[in-house]
Specification:
The protein has 344 residues and is of the alpha/beta class. It is built from 11 helices and 10 strands. It folds into 2 domains: 101 residues, DNA polymerase, domain 1; 239 residues, Rossmann fold. The strands form 2 sheets. Strands 3-2-1-4-7-9-8-10 form an 8-stranded mixed sheet, with helices on both faces. The longest helix has 34 residues. The radius of gyration is 21 Å and the shape is globular.
């Protein structure tokens, strides 16, 4: 009986996600066609208009305004929980990426990976009465909102969240997503490498952009900057993030699996010495990536101080296929045991 109800509930939730996505999609397509603009820009306008139930700022024909009014009348915020709204927005952003052929840095962290990160954080902070998060490169805010919703349920508390994003369109999408989900957050529309006055937090978490940071002058103040040429942006963001983590707080990042196997890694490791414990590096299943060079891992760092100590052993390994539920569950059990016995 329980399984039947669980399946029924999942079906209803999926229908609600589709329903909300359909509202966003109909509106975005209508605005896109009449304005002859990108789907992404149309989605940003849609997210504001659907929340306000107001088409007056869209500057469309009277006929289009009427159509949008009918579309928006189908949306009642109280009919949806935050996670359903997040997934609907996620689908709309995925469509924008496809329709507009958007560059790779708009890609969204898959929910399976976000769930694993949330699982790790939940285990570390189980029993706590508060937790604060910072994403120094939040993009569209999907990872941060996914974690907020997950941690609210697993830890039975309201996380405090902050995010930094420099890209105009991604910041607007993130801000709208937080607002429609009724998640209070401190958001900074700035370049983190220019030393944003972000708060100190318990956990820094991010699906880090990979590549070179173009403005060498901005990178000079970072210990992880390259002595010659451009610096790796993911190195700089790790340093920025850990500088905004409290004593014995954590940094959990999606990074290239080969992070410590490049020439530039020497500078990163030198900066970590005496400041930060490398607690874990868990490769994600290789099947998720087109080739070995593209493979990513979950990096677990911890600031020294407080009750922090070097985990022994460091958690190293590779997740089994997410499709192999038995092996995947066994690996999560091993993470649980490591967090309890070796990390804490």
């Amino acid at each position: 009986m329980f399984n039947y109800c669980e399946k029924e509930l999942r079906f209803l939730t999926e229908k609600q996600v589709e329903r909300f996505f359909d509202i966003l999609n109909q509106s975005s397509e209508l605005i896109q066609k009449e304005r002859d603009q990108s789907y992404l820009d149309s989605l940003i306008e849609t997210l504001t208009a659907v929340q306000d139930q107001d088409t007056s700022d869209l500057d469309l024909t009277a006929d289009s305004m009427k159509k949008l009014g009918r579309i928006y009348s189908e949306f009642n915020r109280d009919d949806y929980d935050s996670e359903t709204l997040r997934k609907g927005i996620q689908l709309a952003i995925l469509k924008a990426i496809k329709v507009d052929d958007i560059q790779a840095n708009y890609q969204i962290t898959p929910d399976t990976i976000a769930n694993v990160i949330g699982y790790i954080i939940s285990g570390i902070f189980r029993g706590t009465d508060s937790i604060s998060l910072l994403d120094p490169a939040m993009g569209t805010g999907n990872l941060l909102t996914a974690l907020y919703n997950q941690l609210s349920n697993t830890l039975a508390l309201t996380p405090t969240v902050s995010g930094v994003e420099n890209d105009d369109a991604m910041f607007e999408l993130a801000a709208d997503s937080f607002e429609i989900q009724h998640i209070r957050a401190e958001l900074f529309h700035e370049d983190a490498i220019q030393n944003v006055l972000a708060p100190m937090v318990d956990v820094a978490v991010s699906d880090l952009p990979i590549g070179y940071y173009p403005i060498d002058e901005n990178a000079k103040g970072f210990a992880t900057h390259s002595e010659k040429g451009h610096s790796y942006v993911h190195h700089l963001l790790i340093e920025f993030a850990m500088n905004h983590v409290k004593k014995d707080g954590f940094g959990i990042f999606l990074v290239p699996s080969q992070l410590f196997q490049t020439d530039e890694a020497k500078q990163l490791l030198k900066w970590m010495q005496g400041k930060i414990y490398l607690q874990g590096l868990l490769n994600l299943p290789s099947e998720l990536f087109s080739n070995a060079a593209a493979q990513k891992a979950i990096l677990i760092l911890q600031n020294e101080g407080g009750h922090a100590k070097q985990a022994d052993p460091v958690m190293l390994g590779e997740f089994p296929s997410f499709k192999d539920q038995k092996a995947f569950a066994k690996f999560l059990t091993e993470i649980d045991a490591w967090e309890e016995k070796d990390l804490k």
